[in-house]
Design goal:
The structure is a single chain. Helix content is 55%, strand content 8%. The protein has 432 residues and is of the alpha+beta class. Strand 6 and strand 7 form a beta hairpin. It is globular, with a radius of gyration of 23 Å. Bound molecules: protoporphyrin IX containing FE. Protoporphyrin IX containing FE is lined by residues 115-116, 127, 178, 266-267, 270-271, 274-275, 278, 316-317, 320, 345, 372-374, 378, 380-382, 385-386.
Amino acid sequence: METINNTNNMNKDIINTDNTQKLRSAKALKFNPFDKEFHANPYPIYHRLRSEDPVHRYFLEDDWVLTRYADVKAILRSGRVRTHNQPELLQLKNQYLQNQGKNLNALDHASNKFLFYMNPPDHTRLRGLVVKAFSPAVVERMRPCIQQIVNDLLGQIQSKGTMDVITDLASPLPVTVIGKMLGIPNEAQDQLHQWSNVLFRILDSLVSLEEYEVINKVIEDFQEYLRNLVAEREKDPQEDLISTLIAAREENERLSQEELLATCILLFMTGEETTVNTIGNGMLALLNHPEQLKTLIQEPTIIQNAVEEILRYDSPVQMTTRIAIDNIEIGNQTIQAGEKIIICLGSANRDPAQFPNPEQLNLNRTENNHLAFGDGIHYCLGSALARAQAQIAINTLLQQFPDLKLASDKLEWRKNIVLRGLKTLPVTFTCR
Ligand code: HEM
């Protein structure tokens, strides 16, 4: 007995030493999305996390961090997780502000109706109603309109010899496209742009109460605007998404008015900054890889592959979150029911177990099942639209200005830990 105990203790010691070493190295290896270095370039830390501690404890909040492709994919497809409880948190914030005579009423009420915060069965019903409006066939019909918007934007700068890819092209494009899809009149474009610039902040995890109040005001104003537009479309339906959603609402009342308004607003929240970042990050990656850039200029037909590689290489949405519904065993760890999981899409897309030479930008990569649009039931609703916009914007830009050059070596990333995108991307080119 004694001997067995001793042996057990000895084994325990060995295991403990082993664990202590692992813990030390895990301590040294910290996932900290607020760290400046990580923000500038998260990929070296992702690399270490995947190989040293793929199911990592986030030191700030005891959340779990997943970085390997297989784990990320499995958790997104798992029925044992639900979305992050953002609506409940917003409700608490609202109650807090109400005690001070302020409120977040509009945001609080709308957030329960945003698809990406919803869970089955409500998510399944609402998504089923809007998914048809974003089918690849509908998006194909939008291509000439997207091309026209890109041509108009580039027409405004073609004689200047210099442009900011973000403010002159990437940023105005998606708001205009989503506005047109919904059937929002052209006169409202400037207003839409201002609203979108505020709304996307909701996707970040560091939003101050003051910022939430600003988002709340935008939601109030946007809802008011949309209510009037819906009333017009009820009388006089058009070939647009609002009219399609009204038809869905009237069919057995399966879509409430609140859900209809929230869905329209959600499209601007989710569809603007993500697309801006795809075009911005993609152009930066190409300008930093002149060989690849040259290949794309000479063979514009590879644009579909090229955009998939861009999405993989520097993913515009770096992470998402879920809450475990019950205990989940993953990589020798147990994630307890109720714990939060940070799912690093940007890391999964650089996992060498899935992508050969993942740190290389290779526009001719053939096997490219990246997770830039997520996976499972919340897979991006606007993926076809985002792809079409990025393909048209990047190809047109390169065909019109084939000698495009970076005009600055000091580029800054936006202060957002979920979405990865540049503040500006100045370039020069020969005038046409
Ligand atoms: C390249 C640009 C885009 C990227 C990288 C992107 C990425 C994503 C990702 C990763 C998710 C899943 C989030 C999660 O699982 O928690 C998502 C969901 C979503 N995306 Fe996108 N997105 C893009 C463009 C768009 C566009 C243009 C629209 C619409 C106009 C859109 C609408 C949505 C919606 C509505 C959801 C929620 C779907 C649901 O919860 O069922 N996205 N997107």
